[in-house]
Q: What sequence folds into this?
């Protein structure tokens, strides 16, 4: 492979996005994904304006908007249906040009993959090692194949093998204390008035994101010991949440039992000291896996992708580009990760009845402008331009 060739390890969300951006910067890119069938599983993703702006810079914003539902209505409620705070999607749209978007994860995947040449994606291949072999070469091994590249992007997710290899002393991901059961309904749900509606009980949240076709993803997040599993996950969600306000029972009634996914939520609680090692860049959950309490994990991976591509186009050397990428991305993404942890502690994870009551009162008294400003703090991000790199020696 030439010096302007890159290998992206991981074909989730950040990997394909990075590949699209790096190609715009003038590189040849190969994406290697271990799952034999590209990951069309998963539930829904909410994309705030920063994620959409990144996707627009990559040239896929319109396709993503067309496959998404704009989240205008909804708000935070208590289990009996009392409204704590209204979500004002119109105000967000006024401020940012877009409200939050709701999209099935599979649709986002398909759009990202379609923006790449089919032969740039190698699937069913697990990368086993990455080694720097010279001043300008990195060697990537998978199966019996070895690729030499001028840049490697580690977008291999929260359990990143490459992160373990590069930072052997780092403690890795830790359990957040929350476990999440989620699904997409099999059919449109009658009476689904709100586009987006988290409901907070004691140490528990039930939320939904509506899609354009009337179906919705729902997620039930609860405090639980790591590894706890249920023989019938849907029955367990019905037991815990079936008595909560409408439309929660209808969402559960529209769900097939085999559609329910169950994952413990982990995060990189110890921040990485750098996202760059020579000609290897870490990106997305591999660099900064965060809890889902702000719905920002994928959005931050998309910001990484655009920032990396922009730096590669602008900096004189790959090493300089990666230093710049690290300097621009680490502070912001680690701040968002810390805020997501805090949001979880004050929101879904809060369990003591007095603390819950005090929190709910505080939310009810908070003016909606202040709520909007909190969302803006994370969602208002301006993507850098991606320009093709000048020819490198
Ligand atoms: P991933 O999407 O995990 O992709 C990593 C890929 O690398 C995988 O496909 C994996 O198979 C592959 N891989 C791993 N190892 C290897 C290897 N050795 N060789 C080859 N391939 C490999 N974010 C939002 O912005 N909005 C939301 O609403 C939202 N909701 C969420 C809800 C939940 C319950 C959770 C858990 C997360 C949520 N997130 C959300 C976060 C978001 O899903 C992640 O941040 C995002 O998927 C990170 O993208 P990634 O590409 O870094 O990692």
A:
């Amino acid at each position: 492979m030439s010096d302007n060739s890159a290998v992206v390890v991981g074909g989730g969300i950040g990997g394909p996005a990075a590949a699209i951006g790096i190609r715009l910067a003038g590189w040849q890119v190969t994406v290697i994904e271990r799952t034999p069938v590209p990951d069309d599983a998963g539930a829904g993703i909410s994309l705030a304006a920063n994620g959409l702006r990144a996707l627009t810079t990559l040239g896929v914003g319109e396709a993503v908007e067309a496959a998404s539902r704009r989240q205008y209505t909804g708000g935070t409620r208590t289990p009996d249906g009392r409204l704590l705070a209204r979500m004002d999607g119109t105000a967000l749209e006024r401020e940012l040009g877009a409200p939050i978007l709701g999209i099935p994860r599979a649709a986002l995947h398909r759009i990202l993959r379609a923006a790449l040449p089919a032969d740039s994606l190698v699937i069913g291949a697990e990368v086993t090692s990455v080694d720097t072999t010279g001043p300008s070469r990195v060697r990537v091994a998978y199966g019996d194949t070895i690729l030499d590249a001028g840049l490697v992007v580690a977008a291999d997710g929260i359990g990143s093998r490459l992160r373990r290899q590069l930072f052997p002393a780092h403690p890795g991901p830790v359990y957040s204390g929350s476990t999440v059961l989620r699904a997409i309904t099999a059919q449109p749900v009658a009476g689904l008035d709100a586009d987006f509606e988290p409901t907070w009980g004691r140490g528990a949240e039930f939320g939904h994101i509506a899609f354009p076709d009337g179906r919705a993803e729902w997620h039930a997040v609860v405090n639980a010991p790591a590894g706890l599993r249920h023989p019938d996950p849907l029955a367990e969600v019905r037991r815990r949440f079936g008595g909560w306000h409408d439309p929660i029972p209808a969402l559960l009634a529209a769900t097939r039992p085999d559609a329910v996914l169950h994952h413990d939520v982990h995060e990189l609680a110890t921040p990485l000291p750098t996202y760059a090692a020579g000609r290897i860049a870490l990106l997305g959950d591999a660099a900064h896996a965060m809890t889902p309490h702000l719905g920002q994990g994928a959005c931050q991976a998309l910001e990484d992708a655009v920032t990396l591509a922009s730096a590669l186009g602008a900096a004189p050397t790959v090493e300089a580009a990666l230093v710049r990428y690290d300097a621009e991305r680490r502070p912001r993404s680690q701040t968002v990760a810390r805020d997501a942890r805090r949001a979880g502690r004050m929101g879904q994870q809060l369990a003591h009845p007095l603390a819950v009551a005090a929190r709910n009162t505080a939310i009810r008294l908070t003016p909606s402008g202040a709520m909007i400003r909190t969302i803006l703090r994370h969602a208002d991000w301006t993507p850098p331009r991606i320009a093709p790199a000048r020819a490198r020696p």
